[in-house]
Amino acid sequence: MTCFHQLTATSLRGQPVSMANYEGKLVLVVNTASHCGFTPQYAGLEALYKKYAAQGLVVLGFPCNQFGKQEPGGADDIAQTCHINYGVSFPVFEKVEVNGSASHPVFRYLKSELPGLLGGRIMWNFTKFLIGRDGKPLKRFAPFTTPEKMEATIRDALEI
């Protein structure tokens, strides 16, 4: 059986990244988009990351263009939205698919562990998955659940 820490993904700059790098961390995986009504959540995700990074939280952003073609650009465009417009300092990965046969292994795994309302499909951009320090998925959050509304769950998982 696959564990989250056995997976890999490619950074926005084209470097392979092992999820094993995040062993012992509380990980929040988010499928993001630069031109979505939920895009302002980047600011809240960054705020959570800055507030709890020292306690072990890491946020991982995975841009996706599958919902309304709301992530049309390449790596430079994505970087500009994340870093310049929202001050994102958490890791962002290359654009991925989260549904269908070309779904990225990280999202195939997370959807199988936490299927959600659509029976294993992701509904829209900014679906969020919280993964425990041991690599076990803990909770799935809907796109409309703001980062601020997740803070209590994150604090509990960090045992603060």
Detailed description of the structure:
This protein is of the alpha+beta class. The chain is built from 4 helices and 6 strands; from the N terminus they run βββαβααββα. It has helices at 41-52, 75-86, 105-113, 147-158; strands at 8-10, 16-18, 26-32, 57-63, 128-131, 137-141. The strands form 2 sheets. A 4-stranded mixed sheet has the order 4-3-5-6, covered by helices on one side. The protein has a two-stranded antiparallel ribbon with strand order 1-2. α1 links the parallel β3 and β4 (57-63). α1 (41-52) packs parallel to α4. It is globular. The termini are far apart. The model has no long low-confidence stretch (mean pLDDT 88).
Question: What topology does this entry show?
Answer:
Elements: E1 8-10, E2 16-18, E3 26-32, H1 41-52, E4 57-63, H2 75-86, H3 105-113, E5 128-131, E6 137-141, H4 147-158
Give me the number of helical elements: 4
Average pLDDT, to the nearest integer?
A: 88
The quaternary organization reads as: single chain
Strand order in the largest sheet: 4-3-5-6
Q: How is the biggest beta sheet arranged? A: 4 strands, mixed
Number of strands: 6
Q: Give the termini distance in whole angstroms.
A: 31 Å
Shape, per Cα inertia axes = globular
